[in-house]
Each structure stands twice: as C-alpha cells, then as structure tokens.
C-alpha cells in the first residue's frame, strides 16, 4: 500500500491518498507522480531518487526520522551501562539537537523558518556530517551504528534539502502516521485477500483519513456523502463532487468538529 499525503505545513487542504499496488516497483510512483510539481519527503528508497532524475519538476527531500531510527536501534541493542558511552548515542544526541531547534520553528512563516534554519540548524547539520566522517572508521562494518552512519552519508544530499526551503518538513512522520492506522486496521480484516478488496480498502482509507486530517466528524460526513451522492447518479459529469470535498464551504456545519 503506497501512501501519499500533503505536507504538514500546507494545512488548509490536507489530502491523504492510499494507492494499492501488487509490487514495490518504480512504475507505480512514476505513474502517480508523473504530473506532480514540487517536493516529496521520503525515506531512502532508491526508487524515489530514480524518479527525481526522470521527472523534471520532482524534487526529493530526505527524512531525518529514518536517519535517527538506525542509531536508536543500535543504542537499544547495547547493555544500559554502555549506552551513553557509545557513538550511536552521540549521533542520536546530535540529531535530537537538530530536532529541538526545529521544534521552535513550527509557528513561523516559511521565509522565517528558512532564515532560522540557515542561521542555526545548518551549523548543527554540518557538525553532524563532519562528526560522522571523523568517526565512521571507529565502528565495525555491518554494525547498526555503521549502518546509521552510511545511511546518513548516502542520503546527505536529501537530508540537507529542508535547510533551503521553509515549506519542507524535516521528516515524513506525517506520512508514517497515516501508514500506522492502516497497519493497525489490517489485523482486523485478514480475510479480505483479493485485489479488488485491497483497492476498495485504499479508497475507503483515503476518504476516512483525509476527512480526519481536515477535522471532520466522520459519522456525520459519511452520512452526508451517502445521502447526497445518490441524488446525482444521473448527472452527466461529476462537478457536484466539488461541494463534497472535506474543505468545501458548502458542507453542513454538523460535519465539522
């Protein structure tokens, strides 16, 4: 299940779309994003980087949460008495400093956020990558810490991209949270194992999660959809759908929280 969603700083019209495909091949996001213009914040999956080279108006930005995750796993694998003396812990501490500074920027305009990132956070990012290059030869190859360091180095171009644009979030945690609800739900419907069922599930999740992201009351909203849509079954076009969208000013007041 591929998930695409609006960035957290574009808050007026949140969209969350689930797209079921049978494989993880590049063909699927290539088709989905072929007309997209802008920045996608992703993990380090090579498919996204391939698409950036193919699509002129697509830019990929990296996820610092994925970079942090590898060090967190390395620290947890150590005895408690050794954790704070490890290089993985030092790496975690540096990333936490970056996050701490970034947390202060949530209410800023994109221009203010970019200016602050360039002035303060860029120094922390520079220091982090310099530290990795100094210490990477001190850890065992194929260890979790080494894996974390090489991940950051390989993704450096993308991990730095948020510094230059105040509208780019530091990670794709918003998308991760959208994936989580699907992963929890799928335990309840293991018997639904057809392709058509998966595609229907993607549509339903897209509607539900987008409604939640736009602060709608789910029961009232879906009651309105299921009452309104049958009235337009004979329409020759789908123009009426505009007024049903989660951000439509024509939605009944009871649909909103």
From TrEMBL:
Q: Where is the Transposase IS66 central domain?
A: 1-199
Q: Where is each Transposase IS66 C-terminal domain found?
A: 206-247
Query: What Pfam families does its record include?
Result: DDE_Tnp_IS66, DDE_Tnp_IS66_C
Question: Record's InterPro entries?
Answer: IS66_C (IPR039552), Transposase-related (IPR052344), Transposase_IS66_central (IPR004291)
PANTHER family in alphabetical order: BLL1576 PROTEIN (PTHR33678), PTHR33678:SF2
Instruction: Indicate what this protein is called per its UniProt record.
Output: IS66 family transposase
Q: Which organism is it from?
A: Coprococcus hominis (ex Liu et al. 2022)
């Amino acid at each position: 299940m591929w998930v695409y969603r609006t960035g957290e700083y574009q808050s007026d019209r949140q969209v969350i779309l689930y797209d079921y495909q049978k494989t993880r091949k590049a063909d699927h996001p290539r088709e989905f994003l072929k007309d997209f213009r802008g920045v996608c914040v992703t993990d380090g999956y090579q498919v996204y980087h391939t698409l950036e080279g193919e699509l002129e108006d697509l830019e990929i930005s990296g996820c610092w949460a994925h970079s942090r995750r590898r060090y967190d796993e390395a620290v947890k694998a150590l005895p408690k008495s050794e954790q704070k003396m490890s290089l993985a812990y030092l790496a975690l501490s540096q990333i936490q400093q970056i996050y701490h500074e970034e947390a202060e920027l949530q209410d800023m305009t994109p221009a203010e956020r970019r200016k602050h990132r360039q002035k303060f956070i860029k120094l922390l990012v520079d220091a982090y990558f310099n530290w990795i290059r100094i210490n990477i030869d001190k850890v065992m190859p194929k260890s979790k810490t080494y894996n974390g360091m090489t991940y950051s180095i390989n993704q450096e171009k993308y991990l730095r991209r948020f510094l230059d644009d105040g509208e780019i979030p530091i990670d794709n945690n918003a998308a991760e949270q959208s994936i989580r609800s699907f992963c929890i739900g799928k335990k309840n419907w293991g018997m639904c194992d057809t392709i058509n069922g998966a595609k229907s599930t993607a549509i339903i999740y897209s509607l539900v999660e987008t409604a939640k992201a736009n602060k709608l009351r789910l029961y009232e909203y879906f009651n309105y959809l299921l009452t309104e849509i049958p009235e337009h079954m004979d329409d020759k076009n789908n123009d009426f759908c505009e007024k049903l969208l989660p951000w439509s000013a024509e939605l009944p007041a009871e649909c909103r929280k």
